[in-house]
Design brief:
352 residues; Isopropylmalate Dehydrogenase; 10-stranded mixed sheet; globular; binds adenosine-5'-triphosphate; binds magnesium ion; NAD binding; 3-isopropylmalate dehydrogenase; Isopropylmalate_DH
Length: 352
């Protein structure tokens, strides 16, 4: 197949990890007979510097026309003045919104060779394979805000349509995995959560009778995620709970440098990016871990291009490189570790 992939390297280590990932996609293209074209555009701080805005119109236009978007990271100390009018992160929020991306997928599958990097006991982690789906467009982060001398408010609202569409995405993933969906809310106190629970129950009963549904309150979910992570398959939740639970879940896998994400909407185009930030402390040194970005590219192959075998081959190649202890500094013993390029090349070699 032919696919147009828009590449947004962004800031900090973004350009390094993206540059290391493109050869992996090229190796997939040549092994499986596909043609991928890559078009680079600016987003984030680099876009502010060059165009005066974090999401230039040309970047958004290219993303709209593309089959998928691969993103590095945005932000950094250069643009973090709290009084600044424009910030790199606004570019990310704006492109997600413009593309209608409402479901943020974060797979958490601790790799055997990296278990020691997690603060959680290894025996709890063996066999953990969770997909967290966070709603991305509604809830308290987007509700009206007020502020006076003496108080402040944040409005939390959710519509039936917003809940239905993210639950359907999560349920479809559960159906293709182990057939179990855990919906997380706070229905004992929040009205939006009672709506969430009602809509989820109806959608699952009417459209996914083959997927088992379990409701969890967010406070007990936070506990169970660490005490019995193996019990979960797909977890779906609203925006703020998802923000908090996905960061918590990421600790199960050890290094931030191993965690991929996809942001999807109702169309095919999605944005694929590592969950970590621009890591300004190591930017420019060529030592960043590229695996999270490579695993994000695997999600791109699976979810935007429908290339399941190719996605699985990339994931297997990363696993094999980790098995062979091809570790960057974040995973290796102190003072050791290979550079970004070497780690990425280990994946390319295993795909060839
Ligand atoms: P953001 O606000 O953009 O999410 P952050 O403040 O959460 O950023 P990160 O940029 O994610 O921070 O970095 C957190 C720590 O993890 C830093 O010490 C950074 O060097 C390290 N880190 C992040 N990504 C990687 C990577 N790919 N390889 C190695 N180390 C990384
Ligand atoms: Mg962060």
């Amino acid at each position: 197949m032919h696919a147009d992939i828009v590449v947004l390297p962004g800031d900090g280590i973004g350009p390094e990890i993206v540059a290391a990932t493109l050869p992996v996609l090229e190796a997939v293209a040549s092994r499986y007979g596909h043609a991928f074209s890559f078009a680079e555009h600016d987003i984030g701080g680099v876009a502010i510097d060059r165009h005066g805005e974090p999401l230039p119109a040309a970047t958004l236009e290219a993303a709209r026309r593309a089959d998928a978007v691969l993103l590095g990271a945005v932000g950094g100390p250069k643009w973090s003045d709290p009084n600044a009018k424009v910030r790199p992160e606004q570019g990310l929020l704006a492109i997600r919104k413009a593309l209608g991306l409402f479901a943020n997928l974060r797979p958490v599958r601790p790799h055997a060779a990296a278990l020691g990097a997690s603060p959680i006991k290894s025996e709890l982690l063996q066999g953990v394979d969770i997909m967290v789906v966070r709603e991305l467009t509604g809830g308290i982060y987007f509700g009206d805000k007020t502020r006076s001398e003496t108080e402040a408010t944040d409005l939390c609202r959710y519509s039936v349509v917003e809940i239905e569409r993210v639950v359907r995405s999560a349920a479809a993933l559960a159906r293709a995995r182990r057939g179990h969906l855990t919906s997380v809310d706070k229905a004992n106190v929040l009205e939006t959560s009672r709506l969430w629970r009602d809509v989820t129950t109806r959608v699952m009963r009417d459209e996914f009778p083959d997927v088992t549904l379990e409701h969890q309150l967010v406070d007990s979910m936070a506990m169970h995620l660490l005490s019995k992570p193996r019990a979960y398959d797909v977890i779906v939740t609203e925006n703020m709970f998802g923000d908090i639970l996905t960061d918590e879940a990421s600790m199960l896998a050890g290094s931030l440098g191993l965690l991929a994400s996809a942001s999807l909407g109702s169309g095919k185009v999605g944005i694929y990016e590592p969950i970590h930030g621009s890591a300004p402390d190591i930017a420019g040194k060529g030592i960043a871990n590229p695996y999270a970005t490579i695993l994000s590219a695997a999600m791109l192959l699976r979810h935007s291009l429908g290339l399941e075998a190719e996605a699985a081959a990339v994931e297997a190649a990363v696993s094999s490189a980790l098995d062979a202890k091809v570790f960057t500094a974040d995973l290796a013993a102190a003072g050791q570790g290979v550079d970004t390029r070497t780690a990425a090349q280990a994946v390319v070699d295993r795909l060839a």
